[in-house]
Write a structure and sequence with these properties.
Sortase, Chain: A; Class B sortase; transmembrane helix; alpha+beta
């Protein structure tokens, strides 16, 4: 009788181990993928971006430090992926950690779940709207990034719901091969999928030069 009970317990333990294994098999991969994605992009930032904005003598940063002291190795980035057209970097890396390459493929699907190496990643890449010009010459540009639960990619932007945080963190820069675009954040909004923020239709003509606003209906 005792042997039968022992066998039953062994069977239950065996089944429990199998169930736990199956559960972990389904639960863990997304977390591992997020962790790996974060590590990969941190490595990219170390390889392609040099930050000399912190003076060794303890003095304050230069007024235009974001332009003169942050260097992006675009030659290397282009070699890695010809779709690399820029780099987005928020000033306070400790608070936001947004420091990523920007890619542009002409559509909004290619990099939705792929990193800049073309590998499948749940976090995807930071990419410019497919209808935008790749040189950021449009009057209205949309840069997409996933709202990751671990705060990576554009997940940390939720902090801007706090007005106090916004007041202390108003600036970011988009770097291209030819220039650095400095932006001041004036508003935060939780955009709804298919909302008006994505639907702009207008063309502005100025003499011989025509500058367009993003058109998507």
């Amino acid at each position: 009788m005792r042997k039968k009970n022992s066998y039953r317990w062994l069977i239950w333990i065996f089944l429990a181990v199998i169930l736990i294994g199956v559960a972990l098999w389904n639960i863990l991969p997304p977390y591992i993928d997020r962790w790996q994605s974060t590590k990969d992009y941190e490595k990219l930032a170390e390889e392609y971006v040099s930050d000399e904005s912190e003076p060794d003598d303890g003095k304050q940063k230069k007024k235009d430090w974001w332009s003169t002291d942050i260097k992006v190795e675009f030659d290397q980035l282009k070699t890695e992926n010809p779709d690399g057209i820029g780099w987005i970097r928020f000033d306070d890396q400790n608070e936001l950690g947004i420091n990523y390459p920007i890619v542009h493929s002409g559509d909004n699907e290619k990099y939705l779940r792929k990193d800049i190496h073309g590998n499948k990643h749940i976090a995807g890449s930071i990419f410019l709207e497919g209808l935008n010009q790749s040189d950021f010459s449009d009057l209205y540009n949309i840069i997409y990034g996933h709202n990751m639960n671990n705060g990576s990619m554009f997940g940390s932007l939720k902090k801007y719901k706090d007005e106090g945080f916004w007041k202390k963190n108003q600036y970011f820069t988009v770097y291209t091969e030819s220039t650095a675009y400095r932006y001041q954040i004036f508003s935060y909004e939780d955009a709804v999928n298919g909302g008006n923020v994505y639907y702009i239709k207008s063309v502005i003509s100025r003499g011989k030069n025509t500058r367009r606003l993003l058109t998507r209906w």
